[in-house]
Design goal:
alpha/beta; D-Maltodextrin-Binding Protein, domain 2; about 20% strand; five-stranded mixed β-sheet; 9 helices
Length: about 250
């Protein structure tokens, strides 16, 4: 009898130990957090002249780190890998990422920090002027983005997917694409570098819906999510986000 009791106790303790090992630590308990981004999306994230990630999102997440008393390490990776990295390689993701129902199945999102809309980059003089004109066209997008989802649903369109939006823009300049769909602010940045060659189209003719950017954390990590949301609220209230918007995005 004693032997059976001892064996049962050992098995119970083993199960508890395995459960403890399998339990994930909340990022709220960490002093150092790893933040995933894709530094190919100016003015929200890009690589500066010193070779370091910079931009509105980078400045924002560093400000959040200061509010939380945490050291922030930026991990630059492909956009399409960001969601799967959360909880394993990263603790939080900020990358001009739009909140979607599909992504909500894998991660939890913070409160939104920016409202965006899609834009269409075309060569100057292009016949494209409305959403209907995109039918049957060869469209460049960054893989895994909202633009990728939109292009996939356009009748007869051929979608060319890139790891970097700038590569799509370069192919557009070289005549390999008819247009590029990307968020408005990056579109304006890309077009500004090619004045007289490219223009960004938007407005009611395309009927793109407004999108909300938010940060993503591991699904179920309610404590860390609350920490980040509280810090975000403070940064909104104290004017920090307004200052960062003026510095990186402008009016």
């Amino acid at each position: 009898m004693k032997k059976k009791i001892i064996v049962a106790l050992v098995l119970s303790l083993s199960v508890l130990a395995l459960s403890a090992c399998g339990a994930k630590q909340s990022a709220s308990a960490k002093k150092d957090i790893i933040v995933g981004t894709n530094a190919e999306f100016p003015p929200f994230e890009y690589i500066d002249d010193s070779g370091n990630p910079d931009g509105f999102d980078i400045a924002l997440v560093k400000a959040i780190g200061e509010k939380l008393g945490k050291n922030v390490t930026i991990q630059n990776m492909e956009f399409d890998s960001l969601i799967s990295s959360i909880g394993t390689k990263t603790d939080l993701v900020i990358a001009g990422m739009t909140v979607t129902d599909e992504r909500k199945q894998s991660v939890d999102f913070t409160e939104p920090y920016y409202t965006a809309v899609q834009s269409v980059i075309v060569p100057v003089g292009s016949a494209i002027a409305s959403f209907d004109d995109l039918k049957g066209k060869k469209i460049g997008v960054q893989m895994g983005t909202t633009a990728d989802f939109i292009s996939s649903d356009i009748e007869g369109a051929e979608t060319a997917r890139y790891n970097k939006s700038i590569d799509a823009v370069n192919d557009l300049l070289n005549g390999r694409l008819d247009c590029v769909i990307v968020d408005k602010n990056p579109a304006e940045t890309f077009v500004a570098s090619h004045t007289g060659e490219l223009e960004a189209l938007e407005g009611s003719n395309f009927d793109f819906e407004d999108e909300s950017y938010a940060m993503a954390v591991a699904k179920g990590d309610a404590e860390f999510l609350k920490q980040v949301n509280d810090a975000l609220s403070e940064l909104k209230a104290d004017g920090t986000i307004d200052k960062l918007t003026e510095e990186y995005i402008g009016d």
